[in-house]
């Protein structure tokens, strides 16, 4: 991209500042609650972070909005997944009907989920509960060509932006992005390799369950993509060349969420690659991110380290689809309720610890 598309100037608009005064007040309240200071560990951290993000001494998680971005990836034709591309379309129907893990989890936690067809290889036509936002029959094969045109990239980013604007208008207080698309750990890994200047062999993982030989083949495909597209381009250009519609839409969603002051709960490996791109484009986005879990994908830890992120859960999950984010929501709720309802030492008439 010789010059950035002027329609994407919004990506660099400032993010809403964190309310550090309210954050400090929330921390002071935690120190007055009837417990040794810090004894609730990261539950305290959750409430304090959310208080600063929401500018409210007593933050709340609900309503929760999940954006589920579904698309195909041309690189799947290189044999980087155990599953055929047809599974993307089949899973779109499964998610929309309520049969997928994320569908069950979203219903369980009471989250609203907006599902997008961004470009499945076979056009399914109108699907109940799915928003059609097709950008093409999947991305290009990154081992042979750029993933997207400039127009497709701009459209994908805008789809994410507009989805967040709808969520905010409808009162959402927490954003989770999910993705589904056969082969999408490959573009996510390629992006991470380019942005972190790391060898594909360090980041490539089993994805849907590849054998060691399959992982080695996947790393070679990623190496071909990196040789073709380079590593020194801008984050936005790397996203265009190496990413996917789902990753790009999530990137746009993250940036707009931070600009509008909507807390972001980052899911697993693929969505973390979008978080990494978003932060490289607009560094202030990082302040609005909470990291749900550490994926079992080996490259996830390297991305988290680059983002200075310490995820709350380690459940050995590697499904994606926003399932890791959804799993954390009950703990976030618990943190907020305890923060609000637990008595202070003065209220309970309990003696504080001595200075010894």
TrEMBL record:
Q: What EC number(s) has UniProt assigned to this enzyme?
A: 2.4.2.21
Q: Which domain of life is it from?
A: Bacteria
SUPFAM superfamilies per record? Nicotinate mononucleotide:5,6-dimethylbenzimidazole phosphoribosyltransferase (CobT)
One MF term in the entry's GO annotations: nicotinate-nucleotide-dimethylbenzimidazole phosphoribosyltransferase activity
Q: Keywords for this entry?
A: Cobalamin biosynthesis, Glycosyltransferase, Transferase
GO biological process annotation, one example: cobalamin biosynthetic process
Named in its record, the pathway it takes part in is:
Nucleoside biosynthesis; alpha-ribazole biosynthesis; alpha-ribazole from 5,6-dimethylbenzimidazole: step 1/2
Catalytic residue positions: 321
Please provide an example of a Pfam family that matches this protein in its UniProt record: DBI_PRT
InterPro entries per UniProt: Nict_dMeBzImd_PRibTrfase (IPR003200), Nict_dMeBzImd_PRibTrfase_bact (IPR017846), Nict_dMeBzImd_PRibTrfase_N (IPR023195), Nict_dMeBzImd_PRibTrfase_sf (IPR036087)
Q: What class of enzyme is it?
A: transferase
Q: Which reaction does it catalyse?
A: 5,6-dimethylbenzimidazole + nicotinate beta-D-ribonucleotide = alpha-ribazole 5'-phosphate + nicotinate + H(+)
Q: Which HAMAP family match?
A: CobT
Could you tell me what this protein does? Catalyzes the synthesis of alpha-ribazole-5'-phosphate from nicotinate mononucleotide (NAMN) and 5,6-dimethylbenzimidazole (DMB).
| Family, as annotated | Belongs to the CobT family.
Q: What is this protein's record name?
A: Nicotinate-nucleotide--dimethylbenzimidazole phosphoribosyltransferase
Gene that encodes the chain: cobT
């Amino acid at each position: 991209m010789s010059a950035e598309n002027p329609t994407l100037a919004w990506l660099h608009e400032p993010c809403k500042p964190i309310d550090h005064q309210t954050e400090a007040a929330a921390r002071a309240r935690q120190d007055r609650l009837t417990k040794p200071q810090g004894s609730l560990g990261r539950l305290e951290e959750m409430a304090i972070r959310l208080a600063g993000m929401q500018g409210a001494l007593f933050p709340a998680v609900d309503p929760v909005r999940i954006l589920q971005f579904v698309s195909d990836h041309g690189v799947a034709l290189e044999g980087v997944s155990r599953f055929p591309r047809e599974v993307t379309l089949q899973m779109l129907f499964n998610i929309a009907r309520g049969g997928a893990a994320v569908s069950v989890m979203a219903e369980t936690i009471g989250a609203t989920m907006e599902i997008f067809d961004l470009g499945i290889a076979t056009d399914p036509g109108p699907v109940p509960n799915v928003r059609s936002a097709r950008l093409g029959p999947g991305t290009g094969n990154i081992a042979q060509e750029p993933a997207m045109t400039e127009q497709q990239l701009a459209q994908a980013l805008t789809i994410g932006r507009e989805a967040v604007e709808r969520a905010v208008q409808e009162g959402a207080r927490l954003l989770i992005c999910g993705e589904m698309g056969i082969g999408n750990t490959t573009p996510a890994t390629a992006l991470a390799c380019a942005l972190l200047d790391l060898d594909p062999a360090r980041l490539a993982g089993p994805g849907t369950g590849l054998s060691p030989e399959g992982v080695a083949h996947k790393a070679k495909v990623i190496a071909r993509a990196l040789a073709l597209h380079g590593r020194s381009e801008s984050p936005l250009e790397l996203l265009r060349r190496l990413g996917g519609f789902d990753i790009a839409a999530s990137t746009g969603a993250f940036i707009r969420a931070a600009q509008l002051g909507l807390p972001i709960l980052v899911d697993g490996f693929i969505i973390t690659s979008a978080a990494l791109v978003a932060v490289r484009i607009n560094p202030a986005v990082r302040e609005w991110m909470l990291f749900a879990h550490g994926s079992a994908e080996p490259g996830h830890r390297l991305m988290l380290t680059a983002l200075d992120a310490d995820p709350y859960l380690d459940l050995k999950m590697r499904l994606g689809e926003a399932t890791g984010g959804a799993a954390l929501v009950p703990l976030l709720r618990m943190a907020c309720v305890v923060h609000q309802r637990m008595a202070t030492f003065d209220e309970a008439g309990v003696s504080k610890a001595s200075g010894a």
